[in-house]
From TrEMBL:
Record key words, sorted: ATP-binding, Nucleotide-binding, Transport
One Pfam family in the UniProt entry: ABC_tran
Residue ranges constituting the ABC transporter domain according to the UniProt record: 5-230
SUPFAM superfamilies with a match to the protein in the record: P-loop containing nucleoside triphosphate hydrolases
InterPro entries: AAA+_ATPase, ABC_transporter-like_ATP-bd, ABC_Transporter_VariousFunc, P-loop_NTPase
Name by which UniProt lists this protein: ABC transporter ATP-binding protein
Alphabetized GO MF terms: ATP binding; ATP hydrolysis activity
Amino acid sequence: MSALLKAHHLNKNYGQFQALKDINIEIERGKVVGLIGPNGAGKTTFLKAVLGLAPCDGDLSVLGIDPFKKRAELMKDICFIADVAVLPKWIQVRQLLDYTEQVHPNFNRRKAETFIAKTKVKPSHKVKQLSKGMVAQLHLAIVMSIDAQLLVLDEPTLGLDILFRKEFYDNLINDYFTHERTIIITTHQVEEIEHILTDVVFIKDGEIVLNSDMDSLTRDYFEVMVHQNDYDKAMALKPLTVKKVFNRYIMLFKAASRDQVEILGEVQRPSVSDLFVAIMKEDAS
Ligand SMILES: Nc1ncnc2c1ncn2[C@@H]1O[C@H](COP(=O)(O)OP(=O)(O)OP(=O)(O)O)[C@@H](O)[C@H]1O
């Protein structure tokens, strides 16, 4: 299977500051990749490079195209949501749908109207009359209704209430199963998206510190619920993190120590957010 996105030795400098450091990654078609990292890690910078919005050093190809050189061509097959939804304030929702229909050959107006009908947004509203969350809902409705090969979502649900966030991810996954799409998504609310991801990429200080598919991740790391009596034995095996819950300890280990650890308690699959914390700490030590 050929990769939809290929980055080799990708670097991005803002003046003296290096925001992306030798990024090497390939993303296959049909993947749902969570790009996870702390504030200022370089996630948006990487997505901007993918969208052709930021020139970088190194090799980058998206759908076989250099995004910065042939942005217009690429935009036919990519849809994106930035963390700040930018829509003109004066435009009416109805006009926005007219406009999108004219400029985007793959836009399904009916689908957008169905999404919008589930919100408080009315076709007669002007963008300036909408709350922040409603603008985000409108933006999502439009983007989700464009049949694109690659969907790039930068904090897509920022400012949205929990009901809409859940609905958005349910729609996203339904849509994913009906169309062959590739999705790259960033969010700080990792627990809300981990069930839809096929792969995770952890990024820190401009560098990729982990790139793994979900199955390997759960093979490589595991958690054990350790009773107080076995605390010292388990600590001797050097867990990456330890959380105390009532009179037990939840310890996260690398798979190498599995044989010794699993006799000490119940083994469970760690959440992506717990793994993220552990790997960030491990990397810092
Ligand atoms: N236009 C710019 N000029 C100078 N520095 C920038 C610019 N854009 C981003 N940076 C710097 O690059 C680094 C990465 O920023 P980026 O926005 O990619 O982070 P992020 O991982 O998306 O963070 P967050 O989760 O906070 O949105 C930060 O240190 C930021 O200050």
